[in-house]
Design a protein that fits this description.
About 10% of the residues lie in helices and about 50% in strands. It is built from four helices and 17 strands.
Length: about 350
């Protein structure tokens, strides 16, 4: 174990550096709407919404330098026609990974149009088609002093000697790059606890270049595609289930998150609801085969305008022994500001 642990730490740190073209992924994707799909702007029952997310991973191995992802978003909507809305907002993310303090930072402005679809006058449900786009900036950075190269290996001491020049010239940060994202979403709300939605998005459509070496022919940041769907199915007036799935692909990487949360509500005027569920992970490994590295357990508390979620990843398969099953901790907080009658929209619970 004394040999395996440093090797595992090195692999994780190297993996974080070598896959700089891959975006971080939150397991509570349903609680990070603008990070998931630009068309999610305005999809909430209030006038405006504020969201905060925090994820920490590999703390059991990396101790003081675990992977951390912090994101926040704000979005609001305004009526433009009868039943139609324009939604706008912004989202920001900071991701830290590995021993090299590899950091990815992005800030995007969002704009979406929510079109209420026409239907029969006997139609007893609401449905919307939403198109959204994001435009923003991003930058990657790291600390080259925390990196070592094979040229710094001292054969006489059989150890790394960082006083030896590596011969590498690496900048502390990449240039700022422009980022363009877009997405679509359709949903229908059939009843207070019965709904369905499906959507898709493309991130980094312009494939910006990210490099720590000046005037280099660095590869472009791979365009990321996302497909997601979900809904709510009632069992009784108090109990329902909210299944969902999100599939994300970027370059050679592929991850699928799937599962469900059960929801129980007291149905009072001051509504209180609790959710609990489990989520599976399906990823493509280095060999191109599919693997299940973790299972996530979730708990969510809804108190009037507030929605607070907590989840924990339990490592599985090959990751379980070196981590003792300890994976990632994730927290989400959502607040809705109630709107006027003109601003109220029936939206699916996510």
């Amino acid at each position: 174990m004394k040999i395996k642990l440093p090797i595992l730490i090195g692999l994780i740190s190297f993996f974080a550096f070598s896959v700089q073209a891959q975006d971080p992924q939150l397991v509570q994707f349903y609680a990070a709407p603008l990070q998931l799909n630009p068309a999610m702007a305005g999809v909430h029952p209030g006038k405006w919404r504020a969201v905060a997310n925090y994820r920490q991973q590999w703390n059991s191995i990396l101790n003081t330098r675990p992977f951390r992802t912090i994101s926040a978003s704000f979005d609001a909507k305004s009526p433009v026609n009868r039943g139609d809305f324009v939604a706008y907002g912004f989202t920001a993310m900071r991701d830290e990974a590995g021993q090299a303090d590899y950091t990815r930072t992005s800030v995007d402005a969002s704009l979406a149009f929510m079109k209420q679809l026409d239907g029969s006058r006997y139609r007893s449900y609401d449905q919307y088609l939403i198109g959204g786009a994001q435009l923003g900036f991003g930058q990657h950075s790291l600390d080259p002093d925390n990196l070592w190269f094979s040229s710094q290996f001292n054969n006489s001491t059989e150890s790394i000697d960082q006083t030896i020049s590596s011969g590498e010239t690496i900048e502390n940060s990449s240039d700022l790059y422009v980022n363009l994202n877009a997405g679509l979403l359709w949903y229908a709300v059939f009843d207070d606890n019965k709904s369905f939605y499906v959507g898709g998005a493309l991130h980094h459509i312009n494939a910006p270049k990210v490099s720590f070496i000046e005037n280099s022919n660095a590869p472009s940041l791979d365009t990321k595609w996302t497909a997601h769907l979900g809904g709510e199915i009632p069992f009784t007036s108090n109990l329902s289930i909210l299944p969902a799935v999100a599939v994300v692909g970027q370059g050679p990487s592929l991850i699928s998150l799937y599962g469900a949360n059960f929801r129980f509500t007291n149905r009072d005027w001051n509504e209180l609801a609790i959710r609990a569920g489990a989520w599976g992970h399906l990823v493509k490994d280095f060999n191109g085969s599919l693997a299940t590295p973790a299972v996530t357990f979730t708990a969510i508390l809804e108190v009037e305008r507030w929605n607070v979620g907590i989840s924990y990843d339990v490592s599985a398969n090959q990751l379980s022994p070196p981590t003792n099953g300890r994976g990632a901790f994730e927290l989400s907080v959502i607040y809705y500001q109630p709107g006027s009658r003109r601003e109220k929209v029936e939206c699916p619970k996510m």
